[in-house]
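Late entry, written up from scratch paper. The run itself happened at the end of the previous shift, but nothing got recorded in the book at the time, so transcribing now.
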Amino acid sequence: MKKKLTALLLTAVLMFALASCGQKKEDDEPDAPKVFHVGIVQLVQHPALDAATQGFQDALKEKLGDRVVFDLKNGSGEPANCTTIVNGFISDEVDLIMANATPAVAAAATATSSIPILGTSVTEYGAALDIANFNGVSGINVSGTSDLAPLDQQAQMVKDLFPDAKTVGILFCSSEANSKYQVKVVSECLTKLGMEPKEFSFTDTNDIAAVVQQACDESDVLYIPTDNKAADCAETINNVASVANTPIIAGEEGICKACGVATLTIDYYDLGHETGLMAFEILENGADVSSMEIRYAPEFTKKYNPALAEKFGLTFGDDYVAIED
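Output as recorded:
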């Protein structure tokens, strides 16, 4: 009996030892690398915004490879849709939200104060986030990149290309906070250059054709800032302005390609790529988004639309680049 009890005890000890060894081996295995879940909310499908999103994804893929998964959703131009999308990201507990365009950033910032948010294709973050005296750092869970071009140089472009123009119609969407900021700055610049700025705002696709027609009737040349709704309606704008023989200077390449003669523009792919590098700093290195300064495009390029330039009899020097079809 004593021998049998001893054998049972030895068996129990042996099984415990084997289990402990197995557990130790399992514990000694390195943890699997974390896979990050990134939600991307893009206001609307448009060449400039598409390029920024692609640059963002490429940058993170270059840094993280298969360790990042994207959930890309489009708001179809409606801020309310952006809010719905962001709420879905919050439910999914994403690690970071990339918001492409001002209404998308505003929707994300309103919906969550804990998930890091990076914006891109946003002109002025103070206006987008309703922060007075914005100094480049939000102090909240939002940072990102700005597509703001030198507005004084765009105003000078109007003067250089159309020296005889007296009235410059500024066309923009009334619901775009960033557009209002640009309109204010450009108007001041145009006034200093001896031209009269005149504002023409539209609300949506229902009234844009009529507003463009009025702007053409009352202006020598039009200026369109970086404006998502204007970009979305650029074909309609061109249909009216082309018939009225009113030239347009655009705030960015996408609008210029559709309806403008020239622009001083950034590369939206590069802007998105820089946003992706910021995301890597947050996800992998633990950077605090609330203390990250807004970053800007490293360079700007003068570009022209060959077809419309020919229509208006404009020629451009080597400092301008033709926009490709």
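The domain at 151-265+301-322 is CATH 3.40.50.2300 (Rossmann fold).
(Scratch paper discarded after transcription.)
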